[in-house]
User: Fold this.
Amino acid sequence: MPEPILFAFLFVAVVIGWLLGRWTANRKQRSDLVNQRLRQPYITGLNFLLNDQPDGAIDAFIASLEVNSETMETHLAIGNLSRRRGETDRAIRVHQNLLARPSLSREQRQKVQFELALDYTKAGWLDRAERILKELIGQATLPDRAKVLATLIDIYQQEQEWALALPLAQKYISLTNEEQAEQMAIAASHYCCEIAEVAIAEQRFHDAEKSARQALQLSAKNARASMLKAQAQLGLGRERRALSSLKKMAEASPDKLIEAMPLLQQIFTSRGDEAGALDFLQQFAASDGSGTLSSLLFEQIRKHKGDERALQYLQSNQYAQATLTELLQVLKIETSKLEGIDSASLDKIVECLLKEEQQRWTYRCRQCGFGGNQLHWLCPGCKTWGTVSRV
Assistant:
């Protein structure tokens, strides 16, 4: 091979070797620089943890973690932890930082958007959360549509936007399992009741009756819906239909008749039958196992037929379902018959016991145990519909 050509080959080989060495050195230098940048926040985070400063540690770890498919779940976990601790500002910052990354897949972006909506809900920014959730529901490829629907329904429930919550609840029922669908059907039934109550207040009785019927289609045992239906029918002058609605309710839930008592009295008073409510109640006394109807009957018999008949009623049942209030009333009636003794002290004792009894909770939630003296269709404690009933 001629010397000029051999020299040219050697020169090219040397240049290539020098370039490869330079590239390798630069690559190592860049790698060392990146590792140093990542290592510093990581060490800072460890120092925060060792000094019992978890807030600083979280911020440091966020800075040290590059967002990719491997660290995505870690970022989400940090955001969720912050939200659970009530640190919604940090949770929002984490999830907004994730959304700013253009490398996210569609499914990852949807997941982060949902988490951000939960952050906004926790922070009380319901309008922002609503916008995100409505955008997600509009996407055909949304994997967990039921969870998004449930969150948006909860927001509408907080805002008392019953007309907006109802169609979403019906859609949710078709997407989830039997148990969750049943719970949502009960909630949707109460949404209809809320709409019916507004209609009754505005004297739109036809609309109220329609909403009450829809409520009963969603949950046939909803006593509230039956009472609202009867109230709407009474507003339309349909007394017989109103009474029929209450009769169906009593057949399904006789213990709820005590809540319908004002409505029953109104119906029978308008018919000129003051004692008609008593006859109505007696039809269902045997089927009530809660004792609430027994208590109601005792008071009604005393009112319309006197103390003796009321005592006979309790005696015929061997006081089996008598409440403490009823028994104290019996004691008061019996002591009033005694002659030749001063019953003032006994009367005082009875009055004190009655007062003490009246201070006990009238209603209690069977789900969480919340107690109160007012009937709440939505339990203030566990936010469950239809679980509060008379003690």
In short: The two ends are 109 Å apart (CA to CA).
